[in-house]
Amino acid sequence: MRTTIRRALLGSVLMGSVTAAPMALAAEEMIQIKGELLFSSLPALVDHQGPLSQPLIFTATVVQDPEQAVPAGFFSLGADYLNAAQALRMEITGPDGDVLYDRTVDVDDLPVAADVDALSWFLFSSDAQGSDEPAGSALWAIISASEEQFIRREITLGQSIFNRNLGGLAEITAGVSSLFTDTSGYPVLAEGNYNYTFLYYDNTIDNITGAGDMGMVQGYATRVSYGGDDADADGIADDADSCPASDTRSTVVFDWNDSGVTNYAFANGCTLSDEFARCNTAANCTMKLINQLNDDGSISLEEANVLRNASQVGYHSHRPR
């Protein structure tokens, strides 16, 4: 079941498919990190090497399962775990929106005989104070070695524990006092729009042919969110939200006339006001929708009557002077 959910989560980033229902049933969680890249040594980005005169856009996705986390104790600072990181994806697009790079590593897709380390590391509190990023750092890495292939992918917010600052970009933290909101258990990142140092590393080698590449990109994250972006802050990620820019007023308002009826939110991410907005003030559509909502129990008979009257007044009468 976990594999199906993970692929659905990563697929929703790629195709905008709706996968909200399984997310609530799984221990896995998805973190999306978005921002701009200012330095590249990834061989796949052949036309974008060294310091970039024009930033590239990235979306990094981490799928992790805190319930699977096992304290590792590899490092003397911070908290590090094995087995929590389940999948890492990095997508890079150019200024014109063309996809230049898109790679995913998923522990369930790796060869059965491969030696796999799924590592997550977090630096916070007093341990972070003496680092280049006193607000904290986070790393997720999946490393796989088999007879056929070697893969190492890393996503880092803040200071690189492996000292991969090859691009020489300054460490930047702006808009957030701490990278974490909770470190009492498996650490929880602060969500929102803020600037934070970002690094992605990829080392992929075909052990049969010897062909491979190794490189990294650096820049700054500008948004961090769990479950994807949620523009209207209704708790449903935009890629699973039928109304990603919902009318979230507390009551249903028809033009200038406030009905006083609660603006209910539905499981698909739409509100009652969003549903009425689809009718574009047409009376027959509005009345049909009210009847339907009453019939399926979404609103009471009393609310239905109030909405009928309020829509007629708001849409078809002049605003009182």
Automatic annotation (TrEMBL):
Keyword list, A-Z: Signal
At the top level, the lineage of the source is: Bacteria
Q: Which residues form the signal peptide?
A: 1-26
Q: What is this protein called?
A: PEP-CTERM sorting domain-containing protein
Whose protein is this, by species?
Pseudidiomarina terrestris
